[in-house]
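#structure-requests
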Amino acid sequence: MPTTVVVGLQWGDEAKGKIVDYLAEHASMVVRYNGGNNAGHTVVVGDQTYKFHTMPAGILHPNVTAVIADGVVIDPAVLCGELSSLSARGIDTGKLKISSTAHVIMPWHKLLDSLEERHRGSQKIGTTGRGIGPCYQDKYGRWGLRICDLIDPERCALRTREILEYKNSLIKSVFGGEPLDASEICDEYGTYAEAIAPHVADTSHLVSKAQGAGESIVFEGAHGSLLDIDHGTYPYVTSSHPISGGATVGTGIGPRCIDEVVGVAKVYTTRVGEGVFMTELHGEQGEAIRQKGAEFGTTTGRPRRCGWFDAVAVNFTSRINSCSRLALIKLDVLTGQKSLKIATAYEIDGKITRQFPQDTTVLNRATPVYEEMPGWSESVVEARQLEHLPANARAYIDRISELVEVPVWAVSVGERRDQTILMD
């Protein structure tokens, strides 16, 4: 299996975790390259459900070295909780490797996240409040504290006091919040450092060495491409690069090392939080999809907004990711719909376009132009080959592939690992 990047082509929650887990069976390494614990991946194996927030989904396979790379921001409390939970369920976490240069989410990041969001008022972004944005701000503002700092007690204490002197003045003077205590933070985070230290490594070197040896590697993106800080629906985006290019930036390998890019998309569309959503359904039909698809956030539990498949958006994200193949997810959720709609174009200021505007102000004026297709009533959850699917379901898949201009490689017909149809 080649070196493969798995990316989401919508606003996240596309079930990338299932595809990563599926590919990991034949991989030697799975590398998480961006985001923080504001993202969540769910993997179902038999009757067991695993919910990951920072941990790479490939950790379930004993053959896999799971890597949390440089581009990820890490909440040590969440990571230690995941390590403990997996160990309690009999999953070996000994092969987990954590980048020494990944940045650490500190208490001031979480506090400032909530204070800043409240300050935005009607312009709120809809963050999860987990400190991811402020942590990335500090990373690029050179205020960050990294894993290599965390596991060195003296350095961690010094850096915490230096940073907190500035952060407390900001918390008090600008937002009227309560200051944080450096000693309490150092005591708490010292326990996390002890648990994390055995896993810390130069992950850039490890990944490059594995790639040079011809080992199969899966790069796991968090969030979706429409949340990319540069190419998403700004400002309602995340603070990192979920796109395939983020795999090189966030791990330290070069672009020529990537062989395949698998784009993952639901056969409908969902979004959590604020921001434009061109094909959103507001009535009973949207609610029915939400309930049937269990569209509630893995990390937050927030209900996801639901709507029709947007081929304009996914064609755009497929292009910026250089997708070589497509995985379509949750086909089973659409069973029972009498008819289905696909947005094939937008009408903006009286003009029809198939181009995705990156100016969100323009995108807010877009009305989707729909193509309607017949639905199906037959269950698809037991299908394991393309020919086992209803004719209308196959036609729907084919039309998505045609509009997105990427061949479909896999179709998911249920949440379990084995409920997957391969097209080749």
